[in-house]
């Protein structure tokens, strides 16, 4: 009878489906097959979603055309360890128990005080009293039921690293239709990616994206002085005087600019590599500084932005997302740097004021030297030049040599001794 029913339904003999055994950390068969087909290349999705430990192994070997000395990981391990240590020692803020229950939507504060007085509210298994304070780590129950509180912590923003190749524009809309860095980014439900700074069309390297506009503003605003590091390849080698000039300051079209650090990384043939650090993000500033000393930049790569470095195994055109732990560690590092900056702000303002005054004095000295360099006779000839052209005054038109007497000239006031005529 069972065979007849199976024949009517068209079902064959039942086979038990077996799931192959997989050790922890071992990839599925589909992943192994995909890796064989792609030759071990990274997929387009964020790499930490695959396996954070194997992310760099899946990226493949480092690019031989990139400069040496790039970072192994995007964020330094000491920053992450410092954030973990701070998380263990931090004290959570506390609030009154009746306020927490009222904020959870269970009633007014007076109602919650009456509820606590009845002895049906417990905190971590202990009967609570009116006036007790609780933190976010405490478990609150009413008659044995857990109270679900609203999270007061803001969600951790997402941060994406992208190795921008040359030939892409950092803009969503381009009238010329050039390739954009936004085209290959993953979708973010309810949010959008914000580019942290810009890179020129021919500049490559690290480009950061985030879903937080406040974080992007914090990283780009000149007030915070976030350090950027670039690898620069120029044609020829810089002289010692040119390197000193680039670190002391060069006058550009939009003001003074300089490199905080400039290191010679060597090179072969006509190409020579330099590594520079700068705390500004003006348009084409690095290229203009080298052009000011007579050097031509043939390749420009940004290798670090703040505490985030470009991993040496991240190929051009690929992206990688920071883990939430790395983002929180970076935010904590930014907070500590901001506190130190606030403490040193008065001294820095005085130094800036002194620098501006010295710049004004230098400009005045240069103008004085230029004035003294002119011929004395030319300066004497220029004195009284407007009166020597026609020999006449610029007001009355009468030559000064005639010594015209203006004592009887009528004035606007009343003449003494003469009364105005009466009207009939």
Blueprint (SSEs and pairs):
Layout: H1 2-9, H2 29-38, H3 55-59, H4 77-89, E1 95-96, H5 97-103, H6 109-117, E2 121-123, E3 126-127, E4 133-134, E5 140-142, E6 145-146, E7 159-164, E8 194-196, E9 204-210, H7 213-220, E10 228-235, H8 240-248, E11 250-252, E12 255-257, E13 261-266, E14 271-278, H9 285-292, E15 297-305, E16 308-309, E17 319-321, H10 324-343, H11 345-372, H12 376-382, H13 385-388
Parallel strand pairs: 9-15
Antiparallel strand pairs: 1-4, 2-3, 2-5, 5-6, 7-9, 7-17, 8-9, 10-14, 10-15, 11-12, 13-14, 15-16
Helix pairs in contact: 4-10, 5-6
Q: Tell me the series of helices and strands, N- to C-terminal.
A: HHHHEHHEEEEEEEEHEHEEEEHEEEHHHH
Rounded mean pLDDT is 77
- Per the principal axes of the C-alpha atoms, what is the gross shape? extended
How many distinct helices?
A: 13
SSE class: alpha+beta
Unreliable spans are: 1-17, 21-60
Work out the helicity level: 25-40%
Q: Would you give the CATH topology of the domain at 159-323?
A: Pseudouridine synthase
Instruction: Specify the biggest β-sheet.
Output: 9 strands, mixed
CATH superfamily of the domain at 159-323: Pseudouridine synthase
Percentage of β-strand residues: 15-25%
- The gyration radius over C-alpha positions equals 38 Å
Describe the structure concisely for a colleague.
This protein has 424 residues and is of the alpha+beta class.
């Amino acid at each position: 009878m069972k065979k007849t029913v199976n024949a009517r339904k068209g079902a064959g003999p039942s086979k038990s489906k077996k799931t192959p055994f997989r050790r922890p950390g071992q990839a599925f068969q589909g992943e192994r097959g995909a890796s064989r087909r792609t030759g071990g290349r990274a997929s387009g999705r964020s790499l930490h979603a695959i396996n954070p430990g194997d992310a760099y192994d899946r990226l493949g070997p480092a690019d031989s055309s990139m400069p040496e000395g790039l970072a192994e990981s995007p964020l330094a391990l000491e920053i992450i360890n410092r954030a973990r240590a701070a998380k263990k020692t931090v004290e959570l803020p506390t609030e009154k128990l009746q306020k927490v229950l009222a904020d959870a939507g269970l009633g007014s504060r007076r109602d919650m005080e009456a509820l606590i007085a009845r002895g049906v509210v417990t905190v971590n298994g202990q009967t609570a009293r009116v006036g007790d304070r609780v933190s976010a780590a405490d478990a609150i129950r009413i008659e044995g039921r857990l109270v679900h509180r609203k999270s007061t912590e803001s969600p951790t923003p997402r941060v994406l690293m992208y190795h921008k190749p040359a030939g892409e524009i950092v803009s969503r809309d381009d009238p010329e239709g050039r390739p954009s860095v936004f085209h290959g980014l993953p979708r973010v439900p309810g949010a959008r990616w914000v580019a942290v700074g810009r890179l020129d069309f021919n500049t490559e390297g690290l480009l950061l994206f985030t879903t937080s506009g406040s974080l992007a503003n914090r990283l780009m605003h000149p007030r915070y002085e976030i350090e950027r590091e670039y690898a620069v390849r120029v044609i020829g080698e810089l002289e010692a005087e040119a390197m000193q000039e680039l670190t002391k300051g060069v006058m550009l079209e939009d003001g003074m600019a300089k490199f905080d650090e400039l290191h010679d990384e060597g090179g072969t043939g006509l190409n020579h590599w330099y590594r520079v650090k700068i705390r500004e993000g003006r348009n084409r500033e690095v290229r203009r500084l080298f052009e000011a000393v007579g050097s031509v930049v043939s390749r420009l790569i940004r290798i670090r932005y703040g505490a985030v470095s470009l991993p040496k195994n991240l190929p051009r055109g690929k992206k990688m997302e920071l883990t939430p732990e790395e983002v929180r560690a970076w935010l904590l590092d930014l907070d500590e740097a901001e506190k130190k900056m606030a403490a040193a702000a008065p001294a820095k303002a005085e130094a800036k004021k002194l620098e501006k005054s010295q710049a004004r004095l230098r400009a005045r000295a240069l103008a004085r030297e230029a004035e003294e360099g002119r011929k004395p006779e030319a300066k004497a000839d220029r004195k009284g030049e407007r009166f020597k052209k026609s020999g006449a005054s610029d007001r009355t038109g009468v030559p000064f040599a005639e010594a015209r007497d203006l004592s009887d000239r009528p004035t606007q006031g009343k003449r003494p001794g003469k009364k105005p005529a009466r009207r009939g």
